[in-house]
Amino acid sequence: MEEIVPVDQQLERALTVTAEEAVTASLRRAIREGVLVPGERLTQSEIASQLGVSRIPLRDALRRLEAESLVEIDGHKGARVTVLTVDDIAELYEMRIALEGLCMKYAVTNLSDETAERLANLSTSSDDDSLSPREAFNRRRSFYDELYSHAGRPRMHRTIMQLRDNVDRYHLLRDREHAHMAHQELSEAISERDGDRASRVLVDHISESRDDLMAELTADVQ
Q: What's this model's pTM, rounded to 2 decimal places?
């Protein structure tokens, strides 16, 4: 198992964070980046030792991640990273398309000229071929996280990021490239503060990613 980002590094980023929150953040990041892969057993003694915490905040963190559908907990078998079926992925993408298209429209419409220009440039930053898949993934995630924060819909924003974390890890694990053209079209729509166009571009991009991933997973089980 790769090394999970230690809790002390999480604490450095936010000194007021609780141990439970820091453990949750460390494990969430490890799952979405593929350090902890789908189906992997989460041995509490091993993880607690690696993160430098007791089992109490770890157990609470696992419960949080279970609520986010990133972890499954069985009273007899313990915890493991959630495995998604093709039907699971279809449902997650259905929710993403409904919510992200709307959130994108709200966000882009609310941007100031200065913020729109900065985010338009940021939207294509993950297309740098010198980046590792994990670096590109994290840049994309940071971009969407910041963009959606301008929508004025905090609950929708939070739900979207949970949905993205759950399914995007499969794209990262398969080292799949994202469409540079879609990022460029989205950049133009953001720069022009055209919420309707940005929403259409995003929905088309998400739909294409869904179809590609589901085709790959379906082929795997045949």
A: 0.85
